[in-house]
Amino acid sequence: MTSVEREEAEVELEEAARRLSIEIPADLKGGVLHGYRALRDMTALLRRVEAEQQDEPGVRAGWPA
Amino acid sequence: MAGLRVARSPGWYAGDPATMPEIVAGIERALRVLERLGATVEQVGLPGYELFNACGRVIFAAEAFSAHERQLRTHPRSFGRFTYQRIMPGAGICAADLLRAYQVRRHLTRALSGTVFGRYDVLITACGQATAARRR
Predict the structure, then answer these.
(1) pTM score, two decimals?
(2) Which residues of chain B lie closer than 8 angstroms to A45, CB-CB?
(3) ipTM given for this complex
(4) Is the CB of residue B14 less than 8 Å from the CB of residue B24?
(5) Cβ <8 Å between A47 and B54
(6) Nearest to residue B28, comparing CAs of B126, B132, B135?
(7) Is B134 at the interface with chain A, CB within 8 A?
(8) Hey, are the CB atoms on B93 and A39 less than 8 Å from each other?
(9) pLDDT 10s digits, B48-61
């Protein structure tokens, strides 16, 4: 993850928390952000799987190695 | 044990450097015992473990956040540190990503049903990457 992506993730999380009126305790924020960045990587992986499945018919086609 | 059809999926754990060698060796030893007792053991290819992990983590975080949203807002200290930091990231998961995780989960379920449980009685794999801690 690049430094830009790390900053983007932080902004996204802060905006989500603000929209939901949730204040993340300062001492827990680092861990929450770490978890959110990991989730971002995972959702990106799941998006790639879907794109490949659209190109390749069949349940098992297109899985990343 | 005779006639039991056993699938094995070392691709899920054996190549991962985080898996202790004792785990791989222990599973192989157990499989040889099963074969000796009459089971048929075959290797199967499955979608990568990271996909199962990603589905589980994304769905868990989104659903757990939804279930505990009010408490996270009003009493964040009522959660343990680890639990809070596991659940709270779910606040940032959008609907499209959650639906995609459900969609991939359906595909993974079909892959498991077709590749493994349609042809075998049991799948043997690692449920942890480390051995139990020794008591000092």
Answers:
(1) 0.81
(2) 50-51, 54
(3) 0.81
(4) yes
(5) no
(6) B126
(7) no
(8) yes
(9) 889 999 999 999 99
